[in-house]
Design goal:
9 helices, 65% helix, elongated, disordered N terminus
Length: 196
Amino acid sequence: MESKFFNSTSIPKTSKEAFRTLTKTQDLKNIEDILFNFKQLVSIKKSKLTSHARQNSIIPNNQEFIENMETLLKKLQNAVANEKPYQSLFGDVCKLKEDLQVILGYYQSQIRQNQPIVKSYLKQAQGKHGELRAVVSGIQSHEKSLLNKEDSSILTKYTINFCADDNMHKDIEMIGNIVLRPCLADHSNEPGFSYI
C-alpha cells in the first residue's frame, strides 16, 4: 500500500475529484474574469495585499503575486482543456482559492475605505496629462477612427475602475461561490472510504 501511495505516476484521488469539479463548473472562466478585473483595479506599487494563509501576511510583490496566479490558472486551464489531471492539481486548486481570498480581502478593504486606489487612478487618468485624456482627444479630433490595442486597454481599465464598486461586489460574490464550493466529492455515505 505504501508503494502505491508514493507512486510518482499515480494521480491522487483528491486531484482526480478536484479535476472533475473543474470540468463541471465555470470556475476557471470566472477566475479568469476576476483576475482580469483585479489587474485593472489594483495598483502594483501602492496596493497593500494581505494573505491569512502566509506566515507573513503581507504580500511583498504585487506583480509577482499576479504573475504566479496567472501561471497557476493557466496550468489548471490546460489540464482541463487537455483532459489531463496531474498529481498536484488538488493543491493548485487550494492555492488558487487562497489567492482569490487575497483579492476578496483587498476588495473589501477598498470598499470600506471608499476606494482610495481607484480614486487616485481616476484622478490621474482624467488629469491634464492623463492617458485617458489623450485617447479621448484623439477620438474627438477624428485623428483616431479605430482604437489600437493600447487605446482599447486604456479605455477598458478606465471603465472597470469607473464602475469599481459594481465590479468588486460582483467579483466578491463570485469569489465566495468559488471558494465555498467543495472540490472533493461527498463520501459521507461510503463507510470506510479513504483517500489513501
